[in-house]
Amino acid sequence: MRTVFTGGRVFDGTGAPVAEADVAVEDGLIAEVGAGLDGDEQVDVSDSTLLPGLFDTHVHVMFGHLDMWKHLQTPFSYRFYDAIKNLDATIRVGITTVRDAGGADLGVKRAVEEGIVRGPRLQISLTMLSQTGGHGDGWLPSGADLNFVYPGMPSQIVDGVEEARRKIRELVRNGADVIKIATSGGVLSPTDSPDERGFALDEIQMMCEEARAAGLFVMSHAQAAIGIKNAVRAGVRSIEHGIYIDDEALELMLEHGTYLVPTLVAPLGVLRAAEAGVPIPPAILAKATDVVDIHRDSVRRAVAAGVKIAMGTDAGVVPHGTNLEELQLMQNIGMSPTEVLVATTKTAAELMGLERELGTLEPGKRADLVVVAGDALDFTELPCRIERVYQDGRLVVEAAAEPAPVAV
């Protein structure tokens, strides 16, 4: 069966201007892009724009809120059912592929792959590796520990080079597609700050070496300048957040071809949660307040310097389904609408090593398509204008029955 999407405009993800064109899909793949295409059936997309399936390269599908007290009071298995809702909310706004930055395990990934639940395809990191007392250490002054360790989800605390080697191998054994590490402190962690160093350089080098041996990339939570630079020197694939990027860090990222995943919406998510009555500890709230303007300036300088930018939100810190707010924030710091959409399609696919399959509307690639009413380069109320979403040529979302959520 050859299906032709006809009558609309196409943004193909390469950065080329939006143009009137048809897209032919056959056996789950894009067969042809051009004018006047024929097929066995036609889908009329007049007055709409066709996009490649969108990416979010930094999500946490197992987490739906920031209320730590609520987490502690919730049965362990409930989070898996909550993930069903989060995955569904994500794909309904046109995001067909995500990189989970901690929380989802192999069972969640397989449930999506096998069609048990609806959601974007996943690359999983399982958990974020952290030093004792670092960003991923869930220890609280009360003695409680927020980290969950269970079969398939190993402990995330690592100290020393040899422990780091063993832990990477354990993550690979448990099904990780990508390795997530913390090379600096962070906003939400109880015992450190975003401007503090995380893992030492030799530890990061070992983790990158072991990941490479398994054919995996490393993504690094890195907010402090020293943590960013250590991560880039050691060979990580991407810097997540990048709040305190300095000029030397930018030079290193350009030299090594390192990606930046800004997550500009994440600190806003913390502040909004507090405004909505979520009991955010004062120290964490203060950190979130302090980083907003610094974060925007750092990403603005990275864009101006030519660093490769891939869209990511830290969804879970913000509500799942509001991911596309990040696009407007990226435009606000100086990216053109075309650059923003390329970062959300082509560049994101490259970051995840999926550029041969996804990210652009080109013959031979998987037919992930998003139909947007009107101008897709106008991000105003974009989630509400998602009309249909296709994965591998299959219709998975139809907006007439399922209105998309908006940011709150």
Describe the global form: globular
Q: Indicate the radius of gyration in whole angstroms.
A: 21 Å
Q: What's the CATH architecture of the largest domain? A: Alpha-Beta Barrel
Q: Could you name the CATH topology of the largest domain?
A: TIM Barrel
Q: Can you identify the CATH superfamily of the largest domain?
A: Metal-dependent hydrolases
Low-confidence stretches: none
- The assigned structural class equals alpha/beta
Question: How many structural domains can be distinguished in the coordinates?
Answer: 2
Biggest β-sheet: count, sense, barrel?
6 strands, mixed
End-to-end Cα distance, whole Å, is 42 Å
Strand order of the largest sheet: 3-2-7-17-18-19
Number of helices: 12
Brief summary:
The chain is α/β, with parallel strands linked by helices and 408 residues long. It contains 12 helices and 19 strands. The strands form 4 sheets. Strands 3-2-7-17-18-19 form a 6-stranded mixed beta sheet, with no helix packed on it. It has a 6-stranded parallel beta sheet with strand order 11-12-13-14-15-16.
